[in-house]
């Protein structure tokens, strides 16, 4: 895992620590990619610098020049819940909603997604289509780069070991602009893109005056379909123009064969996705699918946990009880292992250890997260609720009882994670729609059932809670 875990209290201190420990140091905010790399053994031990407690780095703002700014701690859930982003950066909000599952989006940051630099990452294409720039800072100074030039290859960027990405900015969509993001994956959630695309169009009436089309998962880096963009300029978005542009976009791609799809399939799907995106924009339906409030699995007003300086034992509150863990090995564990091995809450299950199954879902300072993707030192000073904390001497939680009544429990291994996701959902949306129920458990896998009994349990618990209130 990691060697040392450092928690700076200011941006200047973070930059100083980076300069001191680079290149054997990594900055961590969400850590959802980094901890998987540690678990798989593809990331050698290094020093982690946790910047989650730095003030004002999670803000989303609109400046006087009409540019939207995202701080380096801005999570995907922050973007999804931002009225500013949904209104004036829709392709980015759509992409953020496609990343992982609600528990992942509560932790993972947009900046982290950019720095990971996978050509299949979902937030890079919309930001390139929105003409974003990134600001990098070190003790040596500051530089601003267009995001499109930030990437040099697969998982390679121009970020230097002692630099910190401190700002992502882009011009907010104007009233004459429309945008859309589409993703094709092997399943509806928790899927890496086979193909994704982001399209931003400027219109004068029905005539396209400017176009930006960015494609993901079809080249070593995110690419622009420039010939397709050129084919759209000065033309109305009719069927013929859209079909021509989509075909040119497919020609711009240079995909490979892998386990998720062949190169030929990907190239065909570029054409399909770009065509659908343009058709939606032409029909004014780019917001299709956003009619219902998204599921965040977080309490109103809750913020990403900001760890306190860690000088000795890890101290946290679990299910209302204070715990002090002075085991020296604890600082090198995940929150999952800390809860199971040091706090006795064995209801938190370990299934995949990479944020895929949701069996380890807990509530961390009001937000549902995957405990396997949270470093234990990050939880210093936090309040955690596990499945054991739902029954506080007043009987079972209505969702627990509903799981029994509907036969939703099979082997039971995944049940704690489902119930923790469901409890968070019912606090956020007491009368959830069918779509919201499904979105809330998109990060939870069950290998025993067809999910129908689980959905029935959610409906029954919502009815019971409505009756009680």
Please outline the helices and strands.
Layout: E1 5-6, H1 11-21, E2 25-28, H2 34-40, E3 47-50, E4 60-62, E5 67-70, H3 76-80, H4 83-88, H5 90-98, H6 102-105, H7 110-116, H8 124-129, E6 133-138, E7 141-146, E8 151-153, E9 156-157, E10 164-171, E11 177-184, E12 195-204, E13 207-216, E14 223-224, H9 226-232, H10 239-252, H11 263-283, E15 314-318, E16 321-325, H12 335-341, E17 361-364, E18 367-370, E19 383-385, H13 398-406, H14 415-428, H15 434-440, H16 452-468
Parallel strand pairs: 1-3, 2-3, 15-19
Antiparallel strand pairs: 4-5, 5-10, 6-7, 6-10, 8-9, 11-12, 12-13, 13-14, 15-16, 17-18, 17-19
User: How many beta-strand elements?
Assistant: 19
Give the fraction of residues assigned to helices: 25-40%
Strand order of the largest sheet: 4-5-10-6-7
Q: Strand portion, in percent?
A: 15-25%
CATH arch. level architecture of the largest domain? 2-Layer Sandwich
Shape: globular
Low-confidence stretches: none
Domain count, please report it.
3
Major β-sheet annotation: 5 strands, antiparallel
CATH-level-4 superfamily name of the largest domain: CO dehydrogenase flavoprotein, C-terminal domain
What do you see in this structure?
The chain is of the alpha+beta class and 469 residues long. The chain folds into three domains: 1-55, Uridine Diphospho-n-acetylenolpyruvylglucosamine Reductase, domain 2 (2-Layer Sandwich); 56-283, 2-Layer Sandwich (Enolase-like, domain 1), CATH 3.30.390.50; 314-468, Orthogonal Bundle (DNA polymerase, domain 1). It contains 16 helices and 19 strands. It has helices spanning 11-21, 34-40, 76-80, 83-88, 90-98, 102-105, 110-116, 124-129, 226-232, 239-252, 263-283, 335-341, 398-406, 415-428, 434-440, 452-468; strands spanning 5-6, 25-28, 47-50, 60-62, 67-70, 133-138, 141-146, 151-153, 156-157, 164-171, 177-184, 195-204, 207-216, 223-224, 314-318, 321-325, 361-364, 367-370, 383-385. The strands form five sheets. A five-stranded antiparallel sheet has the order 4-5-10-6-7. The protein has a five-stranded mixed sheet with strand order 16-15-19-17-18, with helices on both faces. Helix 9 packs antiparallel against helix 10, helix 10 runs antiparallel to helix 11 (263-283) and helix 13 packs across helix 16.
């Amino acid at each position: 895992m990691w060697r040392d875990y450092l928690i700076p209290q200011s941006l200047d201190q973070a930059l100083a620590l980076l300069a001191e420990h680079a290149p054997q140091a990594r900055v961590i905010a969400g850590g959802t990619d980094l901890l998987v790399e540690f678990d798989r053994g593809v990331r050698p031990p290094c020093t982690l610098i946790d910047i989650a407690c730095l003030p004002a780095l999670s803000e989303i703002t609109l400046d006087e020049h009409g540019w939207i700014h995202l701080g380096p701690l801005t999570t995907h859930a922050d973007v999804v819940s931002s009225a500013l982003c949904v209104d004036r950066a829709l392709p980015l909000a759509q992409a953020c909603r496609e990343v992982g599952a609600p528990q992942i989006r509560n932790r993972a940051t947009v900046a982290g997604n950019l720095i990971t630099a996978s050509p299949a990452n979902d937030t890079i294409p919309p930001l390139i289509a929105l003409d974003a720039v990134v600001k990098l800072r070190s003790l040596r100074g500051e530089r601003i780069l267009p995001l499109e030039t930030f990437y040099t290859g697969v998982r390679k960027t121009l970020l230097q070991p002692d630099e910190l990405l401190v700002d992502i900015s882009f011009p907010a969509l104007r009233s004459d602009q429309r945008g859309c993001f589409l993703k094709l994956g092997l399943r509806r959630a928790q899927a890496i893109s086979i193909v994704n695309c982001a399209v931003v169009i400027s219109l004068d009436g029905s005539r396209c005056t400017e176009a930006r089309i960015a494609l993901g998962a079809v080249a070593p880096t995110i690419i622009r379909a420039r010939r397709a963009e050129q084919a759209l300029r000065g033309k109305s978005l009719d069927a013929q123009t859209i079909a021509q542009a989509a075909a040119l976009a497919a020609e711009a791609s240079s995909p490979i064969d892998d386990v998720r799809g062949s190169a030929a399939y990907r190239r065909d799907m570029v054409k399909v996705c770009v065509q659908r995106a343009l058709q939606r924009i032409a029909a004014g339906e780019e917001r299709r699918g956003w009619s219902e409030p998204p599921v965040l699995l977080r309490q109103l007003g809750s913020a990403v946990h900001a760890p306190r300086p860690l000088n000795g034992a890890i101290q946290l509150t679990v299910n209302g009880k204070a715990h002090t863990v002075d085991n020296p090995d604890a600082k090198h564990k995940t929150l999952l292992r800390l809860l199971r091995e040091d706090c006795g809450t064995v209801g938190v299950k370990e299934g995949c250890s990479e944020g895929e199954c949701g069996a380890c879902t807990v509530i961390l300072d009001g937000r549902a997260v995957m405990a396997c993707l949270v470093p234990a030192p990050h939880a210093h000073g936090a309040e955690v609720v596990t499945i054991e904390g739902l029954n506080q001497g007043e009987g079972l939680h209505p969702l627990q009882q509903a799981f029994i009544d509907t036969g939703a429990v099979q082997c039971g291994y995944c049940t704690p994670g489902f119930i923790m996701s469901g409890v968070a959902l019912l606090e956020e949306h007491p009368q959830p729609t069918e779509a919201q129920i499904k979105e809330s458990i998109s990060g939870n896998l069950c290998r025993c059932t067809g999910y129908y009994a689980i959905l029935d349990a959610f409906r029954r618990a919502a009815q019971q809670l409505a009756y009680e209130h």
